[in-house]
Amino acid sequence: MNPPRAPRLALAALAAAAALTACGSPGDLMKDSGDDDGGLRTSDLLITKAALPQGWRDSNSQGLDYRTTVCGVDIEPQEPVRATSIRFAKGPLGPFLEQHVRIYDTDAAATDVIAALRDALPGCHGYTTTGTASGSPTATFRVEPLTVAGAPPDSVAWRQTSQGDLPITADVLLVRRGTAAVLLMSYVLRGRPEADVLTSAAAAVPEVD
User: Fold this and answer.
1) Which of 68, 82, 182, 191 is the most buried (most CB within 10 A)?
2) What is the full DSSP assignment across 113-138?
3) Mean pLDDT across 182-207
4) Is-contact 201 141, C-beta < 8 A?
């Protein structure tokens, strides 16, 4: 098992304030998405701003770092073969919508993580995570159950709120698509996420054979 990388999923909302005005292409941080081996590509699973309600624009991606432990569940227990991340925004303080796509050798990685989170979340009220780099901050999150209208059966969702001077609430949905795990995270720097953001995003994630 590879050592955990810095938990960008858990810390993304906290780091967002430092990069609010940056703007990049949705493909800036794409990894191995243009393969020609006939397999599933990350680009097959990306949503576009055209699929979202009016007012969204391309924003800077928060990077490929993804691995962290949520309520005792390692959400990336093995290295993906392909990965990408994109982000959309409505304004400098949000709302923001991130999408992470991780493709694995088999569908077991995504399926097992979703099942483990479904078991863990009902009894979980929070978790603490720390990056692996020297001096990485520790972040603590309060967790509560979340239902996303229209979410596919093979998915799991939760709401997490960072604890500290600037609490930020993020709604998170993890969906399996074939051998891929597709994670959607909706947050805003002030207030709570809009309920319809994940609903629209989940409906926009392409199906795969």
Assistant:
1) 182
2) HHHHHHHHGGG--EEEEE-SSTTPPE
3) 90
4) no
